[in-house]
């Protein structure tokens, strides 16, 4: 099979099958015009960052669970890339805090207090985001919850709550935005799963069920969205330095967790891929992740 085709540096970021431009005829140390290969590599790297922003500029997104942690980090980086963002969180005060900060950046931002497991509230939130921005290009289903309990002690209401926030919500947002994205000719939904969708441990049965289910739902969503240019990606992060682990006693060693901004950068990279390219699933863990493999 023929290998990757060298391409112009200006399109390298946009074509994932391309290889970087070949070095000069005298090898990696050769000068290319007035630049050394090292200087050229820096130029290409900076240009790839510019292309990432160009791919997202002027788009609009909904990010759930955006009042803190990964959701806040993702909303922040999206705004800095020129994306208008609806900051969705159960706690409207946290959503307002983030949105206020983001309004000082380069794009519009609105705050929406939403119980993501409630169908009527989700429909309202999507309608308000569409009215504010005129379009919805991306949805990041990031909101999540858990109860650290054995199956024998977990109540039905607790089980339903975890499934409602972690799995049902992704369905509700997809159902609400799919007609919009189909009319626009495309869109992208990123569902935040977990390494809990790859392995299992005790006292997390509902969480495991919700995250394994989210992987399956994302695959199905991708199949149904494909004819309309709507992509679906499952992002599988390992442990992050967020408040999610506050419920654990003792909490994980923070030095073995990753910065949520590292995961958020991965989300932006996925969203910036060209229309003909679909990233189905990405796993991002700390180097010292204990739950993977």
What share of residues is helical? 40-55%
What is the CATH architecture descriptor of the largest domain? 3-Layer(aba) Sandwich
Summed up, the domain count is: 2
What structural class results from the helix and strand content?
A: alpha/beta
Rg over CA atoms: 20 Å
Q: Which strand order does the major sheet show?
A: 7-6-5-8-9-10-11
CATH superfamily annotation of the largest domain: NAD(P)-binding Rossmann-like Domain
What does this structure look like?
- The protein has 293 residues and is α/β, with parallel strands linked by helices.
- It has two domains: 7-14 and 35-56; 59-284, NAD(P)-binding Rossmann-like Domain (Rossmann fold, 3-Layer(aba) Sandwich), CATH 3.40.50.720.
- The protein is built from seven helices and eleven strands.
- Strand 9, helix 6 and strand 10 form a beta-alpha-beta unit.
- Helix 2 (69-80) crosses helix 7 (260-271) and helix 4 (119-133) runs parallel beside helix 5.
- The two termini are 32 Å apart.
